[in-house]
Specification:
Number of helices: 13
Structural class: mainly alpha
Strand content: under 5%
Distance between the termini: 21 Å
Amino acid sequence: MTEAEWLACAHPEPMLQFLRGSVSERKLRLFACACVRRGWHLPIDGRCRRAVDVAERYADGLSGRGELAVAQHQAGAAIAFACPLQRPAVCREYYVALAAREAVCDTAHSAAKNASATFASAADGYCIGRAASMLERRYQACLLRELVGAVPFRAPAMPASVLTWDGGIVRTLAQCIYDDRAFDLLPVLADALEDAGCTDQDILSHCRACWLSGRGEQPNALHVRGCWAVDFLLGMQ
């Protein structure tokens, strides 16, 4: 896959295949979680929400395999109650619950592949054709670029002095954005980077992209936990 193909790809599966063996399990797990979180506006069982929280903590080394296994079991139990009165094939909440369970499966690559595919099924529940689910796949491709950026092809250029400028304000801002999902602060981070001497247009333009929530209408402007620019500044892979 060339850089042009990566940037234009509208489906996550070939991108995930390309990344296999070259991207961290953390990135793959966070991608799975970001896909499921796009359904946070639906009436999801609390056990499924907790499963995604556990998966994110696991990705950052803040929870262990035991907690992951418990979360998977609890999400599985929630599936039985996700659609008690309707056929599962037309129940969006059912597919979101399934995707949450996939996010806490043992293997990060499987979590990424299966959670994204399952959540895409929730987009229309297969009841009005494939148009909505294919649009969701396009969103997911954008999410992968949000997490990985153009890093498979070129790394950002950043003077070491940028991170220590003005008492380390750049790292402080990046950590705040990561911890609190404060993506509205990304333009502020871009200004701080520029003031500190950063001239890398990839990272500056990414931080200044219009911030939208996980259900935004402009998929190229999505920001989620694991954003490649924030991760780069924090030294996270």
